[in-house]
Each structure stands twice: as structure tokens, then as C-alpha cells.
Prior knowledge:
The protein has four helices and ten strands; from the N terminus they run ββααββββββαββα. The chain is of the alpha+beta class and 145 residues long. It is globular.
Amino acid sequence: MSDRLAVFNAGRIEQVGSPAEVYEHPQTEFVAGFVGVSNVLERSTNGQTSRFTVRPEKIRILGEHEDAEPGAHTEAGQIRDIVYIGMVTRYSVQLDEGGMLMVIRQNLETTSSEVLEARGRRVRLAWRPEHTYAIQSGEEEEQHG
């Protein structure tokens, strides 16, 4: 395994770094999607639109009224789709604020029937701020390329 890699897009280098750095800290939406599965969200605050990514395995699913750890970023939503994959389950959650997040959860203490019963359930998603990374949008990537 290499200690440095480069991700290319149409012959142009998108990002160079260690495998862990490129996976954990993608700089562009292309890299976020190319190296594994990643969620990309867009939020507007004070007239400024920002895009960020968070990996599905970094997100915790909480009950609708369950408290997240202090300082965690939270989003409310509803589980729309569930794919049981044996060792893990992939949840698609429609967010109240718009957008969809994918969450991957290890099946440590649940059965397939318990997992599938969650479809339609209202939940809160939570993740630590250090797992959120600002990324450039496709338009910004083209302008900086």
C-alpha cells in the first residue's frame, strides 16, 4: 500500500495525500465521491451557501427525542430506505431541512427484522464537528482548475 496517492479527474490532479487523509478530508466533491461513499450537503447561512461532506460511518442515528453528545452537529429527518448488508446496514434519511444523508451502521446487536422495522421512523442524526469537511462545489472546482 502506498503512503501517498493522487486522485485525478480528467487528467487534472484533484488531491494528493496519504490514503487516510484523502479519505477523511476530501477537498472536492469529486474526491469525496471517488474515494468511498460520502454525503454532500449544502446549507445557507446569512446569505452564504456552503457545501460540506461527512462520511456515512461517522453519523449516529438517535431517537427523535434523544440527546446528542454536547457540541455534535444534528439534523432531524425520517428514515426512507434501509438496505441490510449482513455486517452493516445502510440507511437513507430524508432531512427536514432538505437533502438526504446515508448512514452506515454496524449490525452489532440488531437482527435483520429489527433493522427493517426502522423504515419510516423519525430520527435525529448526529456527528462530531471534526467529521464535517468543507468542500468545493463543482463550479468552484472548475474555476480553480
